[in-house]
Amino acid sequence: MTVEQMDQQAYLHQLGKQAREASYSLATLTARDKQQLLTAIAASLQTHRKEILAANQLDVAAAKAAGLNDAMVDRLLLDEIRLQGVISDIDNVIALADPVGSEIDSRVLENGMRLARRRVPLGVIGVIYEARPNVTVDIAVLALKTGNAVILRGGKETRHSNLALAGAIRRALTELGLSEHAVQLIDNPDRELVSGLLKLDQYVDMIVPRGGQKLQRLCAEQATIPVILGGIGICHMYIDKQADLTRINPVIINAKVQRPTVCNALDTLLVHESVAAEVIPSVLSELAALGVRFYGCANTRALAADLNLEMHAADEESFSTEWLSLTLGVKVVADLDEAVAHIRRHSSSHSEAILTDNIHTASRFMEQVDSAAVYVNASTRFTDGGQFGLGAEVAVSTQKLHARGPMGLEALTTFKWLAWGDYTARS
């Protein structure tokens, strides 16, 4: 082990120890204490708004100079409207009920002992994320609301933004007499620190990676700490033969175009063959006018041949791609069974939707598609903690253990068994 590696290890252990100590005091805060803390954080972000936006402009300028694509630049951009939205989301979290301290169930055993399960904080959460500075605030606020300390490791693209945001949050903590170590940011871009964080099981209770497939795989393969996998969206929408074709275009356009760089944006459109000749020219023309390009199956390309679109031949690789851009895969399918089979083969288990007026077809789709969120006659863009009434979200989990779908407050808690006896001994 080199001296530099030893220094990094010592640095991470210091962060972990500080976070663990901070978590003990956070766990004893009342719901009122935590509401006051989040209110102070919102005020601090408002107070330091100009320096946060100035820091973000440094990141945006560096990203453009480095040749990052428009989708990545959009992800890291904070303007007045977006920053105000981030701050407003704190009010939404303040208004939510605090799950910590609530009892999940309670019962009395035959021996007279009473058992209960009570929600408690996880302790220390490590979050590794990429070019989204809003995550710094979202994670910190949700963690503190549930009495958890957090160690954040953002991408190098948002270093200045994250430092400014975390600084404002830490100032609010100290103003209220709390440890600033409740929210810590690793601002060193060295990837070895990520690997080190993944093995900091002495102090960290859960890792949440928010990023692409490579980051998810890295965490799954190297972590000695439980990892919440998710955030990769290969999302599908199936247009059934009994859909109301006069109403489908706005839903499809919303799913694809409203914000194409996020994980709940539409990636593949599946169209029943009996309505494909009507649906494909109509919806593709509207999408193309909004800047969308396409990867289509042979039938799709034939039906769109006269539309003068940017259309590429789709294959297994393109149908397994999360586009994060104004790109859409399109496939004509024979029926619901073929649509479901395609989703099972290519989906990341994030969000899928069906547009249909047949309740039996809708029910079959919801039963057979095993993703974190499944919609009937709605856009996939709703898979979001705020939209689901959870406040800001930690991540969207696509796994099945502990948490699934948008992760709000409850996903950052665990429970412990509490037992009350009367000097009871086991017989």
Task: Give a quick precis of the structure.
Helix content is 43%, strand content 19%. With 427 residues, it is an alpha/beta fold.
Strand percentage lies at 15-25%
Helicity level: 40-55%
Supply the helix-strand structural class: alpha/beta
The main sheet comes to: 7 strands, parallel
As laid out across the biggest beta sheet, the strand order is 10-9-11-8-7-12-13
The shape, in one word, is globular
How many individual β-strands?
16
- Span from first to last CA? 54 Å
Q: Count every helix, treating DSSP H or I runs of 4 or more residues as helices.
A: 15
Question: Which stretches of 5+ consecutive residues score pLDDT under 50?
Answer: none
Task: Kindly provide the radius of gyration, computed on alpha-carbon positions and rounded to a whole number of angstroms.
Answer: 24 Å
Averaged pLDDT: 93
Walk me through the structure.
There is one protein chain. It is built from 15 helices and 16 strands. With 427 residues, the chain is α/β, with parallel strands linked by helices. The protein has a 7-stranded parallel β-sheet, sandwiched between helices. A 4-stranded parallel β-sheet has the order 5-4-3-6, with helices on both faces. A 3-stranded antiparallel β-sheet has the order 1-2-16, with no helix packed on it. Strand 7, helix 10 and strand 8 form a beta-alpha-beta unit. The protein is globular, with a radius of gyration of 24 Å.
